[in-house]
Amino acid sequence: MVEAPENKLQLCVTFIVEQLEVRNRHIGNERPPPFLLGINGVQGIGKSFLVSEIASLLEKAPYDLHTVVISIDDFYLAHADQVQLAATHSDNPLVQHRGQPSTHDLGLAISVLSSLRARREVTIPSYDKSAFGGQGDQVPQDEWTQLNRSGQRPIDVVILEGWCLGFRALDDAELTTAWEEARKARNQGQDYCGRLGHNRLDNVRFVNNALKGYDAITNQLDALIHLDAEDPQHVYEWRLEQEAGLRRDKGSGMTAKEVVDFVNGYYPSYELFTGRLRAGAFDSRKGNQLRLVIGKERDVREVVQV
User: Fold this and answer.
1) Whether the predicted model's global pTM rises above the 0.85 cut
2) Which residues, listed in sequence order, are joined to residue 224 by a DSSP beta bridge?
């Protein structure tokens, strides 16, 4: 199991509480909406475990903040819709499986977040990644989690975690330049270990254009924590560790080749969008983003408030 070092956990909680207090003073409302926190991190970095630890600590004294955790994965398209998307763009390997921008039900995600902020009764979807032989599907709606029902404790903090939270699309000139540089590095035989240069520009452009719609999620965030891999290549080793654990504990999991293929499908987005995220996801707000640079051993190497 991935450990959440005390300093990482306390850094996050201190940041959240400070941002919550600043937000509440600014609003000046006796009953402000829930504080919406986004947490971004590559696969295997320890994001889900850390989020669980944060939520658990916030629930306890001295904070006593009722906290709900949601994953962007909960909003993946229903299986039939994902199959249709893949078929419609059969020549684009980036959308043949769930993961990239365009493979989430954005309308559902935006509606759920808006309802949470307005304290309206809402049901939170869930996604079964094992359905259809691992292709995944939404669970039946009668199994979704109901929140803000009469008699339930009011929610103070909503944590939305996901690998692409806070990513902002590039303009077409930036996108083309990044792709051309990656393509050149690959073709010249340089020590290029990325995946952007292995994809066609029009396929990458499709994902970039889809990402524009995710601004409607990012713009709702009150703050963001970015778990930033010091070297993005660590994601391969981290995911291999996770799958080895699954095979050991549950008797099933992806093979090493399947892990590499899986990560390869995400990696172009890391190459394209991480730089902007490091500079800050919020154009008009400063100080609302905490960037923790994470080393290979998942230790905090640097702390930056953006």
Assistant:
1) yes
2) 38, 289
